[in-house]
Design a protein that fits this description.
Length: 201
């Protein structure tokens, strides 16, 4: 099984004690690719040498407004209306992924209509994730990707603990359940979705 964790923060200090050992173990859990998402300029300085040292890890970084026609990662946290307004203003010029999507089906439809993918992580496994579950079950399969946002947002049964890319499997299993698919059948679809999203050959 091949899994692509499309949003991770392995350079976070919470991995300082065991980062290399964890990365070495990823393939044992089926994790073949990881997208390391940069969060600030200090992080950016560490990102390039990190991805150069680890062939299975790619890096995402950018400074607005220099988007260069590349996919963007949008983190909308309790600002669905404002976020959609911004995306509408750039319709047709910017596409990418709605990272850690938590909006309604109506918001999801609008994002999908604008060409965005939807990223789901550990929150999909939470008991109160009604909107996430509805969207993950309804959205076109070719527009879904999975992620951890590690070290945050660990899925059940690890909620409240440090998250890492090996736990993407729990998100995969939940999404497979919602789509009435076997995880081993869903995994290659999501893997290819992630590669297509980020232009990875």
């Amino acid at each position: 099984m091949e899994i692509f964790d499309t949003h991770a923060h392995l350079l976070d200090e919470k991995f300082d004690e065991d980062r290399e050992a964890l990365i070495a173990s990823l393939s044992d859990s089926g994790v073949r690719l990881v997208m390391e998402a940069c969060t600030d300029l200090d992080y950016l300085e560490k990102l390039l040498p990190f991805v150069e040292a680890h062939p299975a890890i790619y890096g995402a970084a950018g400074l607005h407004p220099e988007e260069l026609g590349l996919p963007v990662i949008v983190h909308d946290r309790e600002a669905h209306g404002d976020t959609v307004d911004v995306l509408r203003a750039h319709r047709g010029r910017v596409v990418g992924v709605m990272h850690c999507f938590s909006g309604s089906w109506e918001t999801a439809r609008e994002c999908l209509d604008m060409g965005f993918c939807l990223g789901f992580g550990g929150a999909l496994t939470f008991k109160n994730a009604k909107k996430n579950v509805e969207v993950a079950a309804k959205a076109p399969l070719d527009r879904l990707v999975i992620e951890t946002d590690c070290p945050y947002m660990a899925p059940v049964p690890f909620r409240g603990k440090r998250n890492d890319p090996t736990k993407t499997l729990y998100v995969l299993q939940k999404l497979a359940e919602l789509r009435a698919m076997a995880p081993e059948d869903l995994a290659p679809v999501l893997f290819e979705n992630g590669k297509r999203l980020f232009g990875i050959q």
